[in-house]
Design a protein that fits this description.
- It is built from four helices and no strands.
- The chain has helices at about 10-20, 30-40, 45-50, 60-100.
Length: about 120
């Protein structure tokens, strides 16, 4: 039977490894700043952004990977903010429609309005 031995990477050796593969160093950040950033992002997650540059490491630098990460983080937050407004409007519209159909403001608590789940009762 084969076995798997997990070997935790430390950030410093990970940085050395990606530089050895040809990725250019940052033009703006010091080694300590890079370590702190990658430590806060996490090596596993950072590798996902690094993958976008895998085909040609030598013509890219670490700054580009960070730009991609921070843009993705910004875009995610921006889209979540947009969807929050839509979600809130949709929920309030649905609740208003339900209130028009009943005189009970706690209609959602009444058992007769609940659909029996087939998943939980098998």
């Amino acid at each position: 039977m084969s076995s798997y031995t997990y070997k935790k990477k430390d950030v410093r050796s990970f940085i050395v490894e990606i530089y050895a593969k040809g990725l250019q160093p940052s033009q703006y950040l010091s080694g300590d700043e890079i370590e702190v950033l990658i430590e806060s992002i996490g090596i596993f997650k950072f590798k996902g952004y690094l993958y976008a540059f895998k085909s040609d490491f030598t013509s890219h630098n670490l700054d580009e990977v960070f730009v991609l990460y921070f843009f993705d983080k910004y875009l995610t937050q921006y889209l979540m903010d947009l969807t929050f407004g839509v979600e809130a409007k949709l929920k309030s519209s649905l609740v208003e429609l339900c209130y028009q159909k009943t005189t009970n403001p706690f209609f959602y608590l009444a058992r007769r309005y609940h659909k029996k789940s087939t998943i939980l009762h098998q």
